[in-house]
Amino acid sequence: MFYLVSFDISDDRIRYRVVKELKGYGYRVQKSVFECPSMTEKRFLRLKDRLEMLIDWTTDSVRYYRLCRGCLRDVEVSGLGSAPDVEKYGMV
Amino acid sequence: MFYLVSFDISDDRIRYRVVKELKGYGYRVQKSVFECPSMTEKRFLRLKDRLEMLIDWTTDSVRYYRLCRGCLRDVEVSGLGSAPDVEKYGMV
Q1: Beta strand A61-67 with A33-36: parallel, antiparallel or unpaired?
Q2: Contact (CB, 8 A) for B5 and A65
Q3: pLDDT digits (tens, 9 = 90+) for A32-88
Q4: DSSP state of A26
Q5: Using an 8 Å Cβ cutoff, are B91 and B2 in contact?
Q6: Distance (Å, rounded) from C-alpha B59 to C-alpha B56?
Q7: CB-closest option in B52, B61, B65 to A67
Q8: Number of C-beta neighbours around residue B85 at 10 A
Q9: Is A63 in Cβ contact with B33 (below 8 Å)?
Q10: Would the pLDDT of B92 be above 50?
């Protein structure tokens, strides 16, 4: 499964730790957006649990968007960066 | 169609204008993430054209993710905010 994870974190230390955690699951495509291509349900739940322990629920937010093959194929980019490579991720 | 649009814009004036433009198409769910629920192909192309005229292609990036009904139903959130309301958007 492919997930896009975006975040708004107010505290610099917490943001650092959230980014560090996300780097274990995917690629940083924008300052507050990661693409996590090879997620299983188990990996996703573990990531979500970890992030939920890190963030301040009164100020921070993390959004998780699962993208199916069809949606993934339609990703477009303006400016820097490139769309995810669907074939490379061997999406079912 | 439902689009998630995320951006990294270095210049404050350009970012202000990008946000202003996006507000005409959807809702700001995080600092650099908008959800645009009722997009037609024509509206999407007009939005993309507008943003491409505004941004600095050497420093900025805008990413457009179309989300089908199935992907939209799986959106999850930790902390502040809520997932998009699929029924409300009458997604086909």
Answers
A1: unpaired
A2: no
A3: 999 999 999 999 999 999 999 999 999 999 999 999 999 999 999 999 999 998 877
A4: S
A5: yes
A6: 6
A7: B65
A8: 10
A9: yes
A10: no
User: Does this model's pTM top 0.80?
Assistant: yes
The domain ranges of chain B are 2-71
In this prediction, residue B91 carries a pLDDT of 57
**Residue (of A32, A28, A29) closest to A10 by Cα position:** A32
What whole-number distance in Å separates Cα of residue A92 and Cα of residue B22? 33
- Residue type at B39 in one-letter notation: M
Give the total residue count for chain B.
92
pLDDT digits (tens, 9 = 90+) for A68-81: 999 999 999 999 99
A8 marked as part of a ligand binding site = yes
Pick B2-71's CATH classification: 2.60.120.10, 3.40.190.10, 3.30.2350.10, 3.30.70.240.
3.30.70.240
Closest Cβ opposite residue A71 in set B32, B66, B76? B66
Distance CA A86, CA A72 (A): 7
Alpha helices in chain B (DSSP H): 12-23, 41-54, 69-73
Q: What was the pLDDT predicted at A91?
A: 57
